[in-house]
Structures are given as structure tokens and as C-alpha cells.
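Need Chloroplast outer envelope protein's 3D structure for a figure. Predict it.
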Amino acid sequence: MSQREMDNEANIGQESDAAAELWTGLARLPEKNDIIELLRELRGAGRKQLTILLLGKSNVGKSSLVNSLLGEDAMRVQAFKLQADAEVATVVTRQVSISDDEIDGFRIRLIDTCGLEDSEAGDTVNLTALKKIADDLRGVPIDVVLYVDRLDLYRVDSLDQAVMRAISQVLGQDIWSRTVVALTHANLSQPPPGTSYDSYVDGRVRLLRAAVPRRFLFRPKLPTSLVENSLLCPLSPESGHRVLPDGTEWLVGLMGDIVDVALAKKRAYEFRSRPNQKALIAALLLPLAVAGEYLLFQKVIRPVLESNQRRVEADEQRVWTLRGLQRKAMGLHAANKPSDDVAKRLSQMYDDD
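Structure prediction for Chloroplast outer envelope protein:
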């Protein structure tokens, strides 16, 4: 890792390994035992830390989701938008300490980011913010990305599509293979008229997945979890876990998807500067162009030149043969055909004249 990458990794969280706080909120989570078992799976696979990057527009609940995952008010909930000279990301790192040698010391690192739209410029993508996020992430291993949006929005508009395209262009298409879609405000008591909760959720998920740019001919199959950050989220009478209208225990489900995605990849995602696309294409095409020119010369041009040369030599031979017959009929000795060197010098003499 370069010095710049190490500096960025330190700057994005401004936390050294020794500075991670104890995860005190874990004990307050109703889903504590299930979360610990999921973290055991990561620890059993040799993982010592789980790093999660949250991306999405403003006001979709990214910061609230950080607080829900940790069980504490680690992030101030507000419209996290990019201001002049402001940080584009805030990192919270917590360390497990539950008097269990198997899991103690495991760290969870959450990277919250600013909204990716620029409402002041007419609801366009805030490429300045996204590029600053990418620059700060350079060399930082990311296990899972949470793309956060709201369930209670009824459509995917052009801005949503533009944000997803920008993420692919700046951070790379591979980032979607490590992404879980988290849909907040999922405690819908009244879905749109004429539809059930389940059918509405299916339609919303299908629209979001269809908006993700294709990689070659395929779109990534994004796992999707429903989220309700509100304190008014109902609790299951059996388990005491927070549940949604369809009975889903959302925090356990979300953490399960996160762990599955993290374990599915042997290596974490790391942002690297992408080379200039035009220069890369030119570099790839240059050998093909040279090879094409070589094949064109060998298979087309060279045979034509050789055929023309043989035709010229045959014509010259006929001329000298005819001249010899004429001189013989006149009782003269046969004409001597000049050597190639003499013919070349004679040709140069005539050209000079």
C-alpha cells in the first residue's frame, strides 16, 4: 500500500486501531444474540473486521441506519450534504467486548457518506462529492456496500438512474457485486391502493434492480433488505425483535445479507484510480492495429506486389527473347541482357536525365 493510500485510510475515519470505541450499543439491541452469531461466522472465516460503506441520496436514512445497526446514537441524523471544504464521509468504528474470547476484539466499521444528489444544481448527481468519496476510499478495504433508498417512494426516476450510473463510473461496476440494497421506511401501514404490502415491495425492488447499469449483458442480483429505523417499529411478541408488517425481523435479515455478501468474496473491494478510458482503449487497440496491418501486408499487399514483379520480369524476358530472335535472323550475335546492377545504373541515368 502506498503512503497516500495509508494516509487516506487514516483520514477517512481519523481513527487508529487503538482508537476504536467499545460497542456498548450491542447489549441494547433486542437482536443481540442473533447479531453475535452472525459475527461468529465472520470470525470463523478469519475476519477480524467488517467494513460497511453506505451510499445513497440525502434524506433516505443512511445515518439513522448506522445508529440502528449499532444500537446507539453514533451519528447525528440530518440531511448530510456536501458543503464547502466539508468532509464527505464520517466513519464510526466499534469493537466487540462481551467477555467472549471467540468474538471479543471483532470490529465493525461503518462509513456514512453525504447525499449523492446536488439539489442546488437542479437535482443532478453531485459528482464532486462522489469523486471526493472515491479519493478518500482509495486503498481502504470495503467488505459490503449498503445502497440506501426509501421503500415509500413509488417510482425510480431519472435522478436515481443517474446516481447509479455515476457510482458505476466513479467507483467501478464491480462495487455492485458487493452491494445490499437497504430500503428504509419499510413499516408501511397502508401500501398504495389496490396493492398488498408484499406486491408493492416486490415492485419497488424490481424497479431498483432494473436501474442498476448492466455489466456486459447482465445486471447484478442485488440482495435487498427492508429497514425501519423508527423507534415506533413494532416488536415481535415471541422474540422481542423489531418486525415489519410482513413479519420480517428486519435487523437480523439485514445483517444476514451483509454477512452473506462479505463471506461470498475472498477479497474486500478497494477503490483504485481507473485509467483514462480512451487511453486504455487506444493501448488495447494498438497491438490489434499493428497485427492487422501486418496480416494485410502478408495476405493481400505482398502477394499483389510479388505477382506484379513476376509479370514485369516475364514481360522483360519476352522482350529479350524476341530481340534475340531478331538479331539472329539478321546474322548478329544474341543480345546480352544487362545484369541487375547494370540495369539499375542505367535506370538511374535515365531518371537523372
